[in-house]
Amino acid sequence: MTDLDQTPWRQLLEARTAEEFCLGWLDLQSRMIGGVSGGVVVFEAPETGSFAPVAFWPRGLKERETLAGVVERVIRERKGIVLRSEADREPDAAEDPRLHLAYPVWVGDRLSGVAALQIAPRPQIQLQPAMRLLQWGVAWLQNWILRQAAEPDAHVRKRLTAALELAALVLEEEGFQAAATAFVTELATRLRCDRVSLGFVKGGQVRVRALSHSAQFGKHMNLIRAIGLAMGESADQRAIL
């Protein structure tokens, strides 16, 4: 492969949005199948259950309505299809109409999307390999959908793990001051903060009780006073400052 041929692979691996990923995927499919003049990827919106286009390839594609009709048929029939373009059957159209390949994207037993391509006419014997390449390529789309669905769960697990580790760290200390200091110091390390402080409200005022990386307050009275005022302002406004 040339450096240019590596472009869609890089786009697949580095994509941060569904559109970026699907554009790279469509580009790659067009190179592998050959003779592709346009394509679309449609995903289901989990919140509504409706299907919407994620990416058209190339950008500015004019035959969007035709591809939309192909996608609707796949959603209705729930299987891969090969169609001849009705638009190319007009009197002034070429003798051999363009073809449409489309395949559903299944995630488990749920129809989660459709991929459709418009390709140049070719012998029947060449259609099966083209359809097989599309079917295999759909696995990339399935993987993207699964990965996006798993990320929120992974984020929640990471937060819960961090909370449990902090709780365990605090419980290892014998007294309140040692536990509070260990807690803010660990937070500062994990979040890469210059300083983390902990305060409690008592009698309508905030009192700073722990400062990261410091067991003694004596050398930091001006800093403690400034932090306490900032904490008090935040408590009065009931807002993040």
Write the layout of secondary structure elements.
Elements: H1 7-14, H2 18-33, E1 36-44, E2 51-57, H3 64-77, E3 81-84, E4 99-107, E5 110-119, H4 124-171, H5 176-191, E6 197-202, E7 205-211, H6 221-237
Antiparallel strand pairs: 1-2, 1-5, 3-4, 4-5, 6-7
Helix pairs in contact: 1-2, 2-4, 4-5
Explain this structure:
The structure is a single chain. The chain has 241 residues and is of the alpha+beta class. The strands form 2 sheets. Strands 2-1-5-4-3 form a 5-stranded antiparallel sheet, with helices on both faces. It has a two-stranded antiparallel ribbon with strand order 6-7. The protein is elongated, with a radius of gyration of 29 Å.
Summarize this entry quickly.
The chain is α+β, with helices and mostly antiparallel strands and 241 residues long. Helix content is 49%, strand content 22%. The protein contains 6 helices and 7 strands, in the order ααββαβββααββα.
**What low-confidence regions span 5 or more consecutive residues with pLDDT below 50?**
88-93
Radius of gyration: 29 Å
**Count of extended strands:** 7
Cα distance spanning the termini? 53 Å
Fraction in beta strands = 15-25%
Profile the largest sheet: 5 strands, antiparallel
